[in-house]
Amino acid sequence: MKPFTYYIIFILLIFCTYSCSTDSLMLYHPQEEEPEPKPEPEPEPEPEPEYYWLLKTVGYPDDNPGFSRRYSQEFTYTDDDLMKTITSSKENDSPIVVDYISDSKVSYSRIIQQNATSVYYDSLLVFLNDKKQAEYALHVRYTERTSGEETTKKISINDSTTFVYDAAGYMQQLDHYDKTGIESSLNYSETYTVVDGNITEVSTSKGYLFQYTYDDKEHAAPSEYCYEMPRNTFNMATTCWLMANLPFLSEHMGARSKNNIIQAVVTKISDGSTYADIKYDYTFDENNLVSQVEMSGTTKNNKAFENYITTFTYIEKEKK
Questions:
Q1: pLDDT value of position 24
Q2: Whole-angstrom Cα distance, residue 189 to residue 269?
Q3: What is the largest CA-CA distance in the chain?
Q4: How far apart are CA 98 and CA 124, in angstroms?
Q5: Fewest C-beta atoms under 10 Å: which of 83, 173, 268, 271?
Q6: Distance (Å) of CA 317 to CA 83, 218, 225, 312, 313
Q7: Nearest to 314, CA basis, from 83, 73, 72, 56
């Protein structure tokens, strides 16, 4: 019996050991730990908006120390940021309307109520090459006159301008003709000298040489509206409407200078005497846009002036 009893006890011990090590037979099951929740991903930060600016106004003081008169201007734009209208502070001028006819043609038109009986209709058509440079521009003015019950309308001006560029895209020469298509009607020319990406000299057929000194800062394009800058000289202003308003055509007139003009010296070619000596001082706003240019020096046969300020304002737009 004794061996049998030992055998039974041994079998029971094995059974008990197995029962205690098997989860399915355990009387107590420890609670399973729940996994820690994964942290929610941080939301992507909203990108900072980016802005750009379009020229809104150019303001000239009412007083004039001897420059050919310029009128303040205000600009509007299409949804594609193309210039749409140019409004002058001159009361009898209508806004200049800009029409982008095609990739190679841009027109500018305006109406001038000259007086109670005369109205001018100006049309300027600019022809562009495949580099978007103006090759030539045609200007036609119709004059409408009313006398009693009779109204007449005829072409009173039909002039044109041609432009020539160098291989780098800078203007080399400008020729203005009183009568379109008639070479003998050439009445004004300019030739340009470019050094290190800047227009340093402009020689005119009216006998003046404009010499420019530059800073080392990036060119502020609105400053081209300042008096005696290239394409905005007193020689041009006294030629015709087309020539007097070349600054707003600058986007079509080849490469711009890379820096800012800080001095313009105008001499008479015939005897080398100084006609004008002008210094330009730039002020930039918090967006690094030129907000004003202060001019001082001498003009018109050394007539002294100072604190002549041209101002600029802008339209802020958000990049899409």
A1: 46
A2: 14
A3: 153
A4: 10
A5: 271
A6: 15, 21, 22, 16, 13
A7: 56
Q: 272: which 2 tokens?
A: 């080398």
Q: How far apart are CA 96 and CA 94, in angstroms?
A: 6
Q: Are 189 and 174 in contact (CB under 8 A)?
A: yes
CA 107 – CA 192 distance, rounded (Å): 26
In DSSP terms, which residues pair with 122 in a beta bridge? 110, 141
Secondary structure element (H or E) that encloses residue 13, with its range: helix 2-21
Integer Cα distance of 125 and 127 in angstroms: 7
Residue 36 has pLDDT above 50, yes or no: yes
Query: What is the mean pLDDT of the segment spanning 74-101?
Result: 91
pLDDT at 238: 65
pLDDT digits (tens, 9 = 90+) for 260-312: 999 999 999 999 999 999 999 999 999 999 999 999 999 887 789 999 999 99
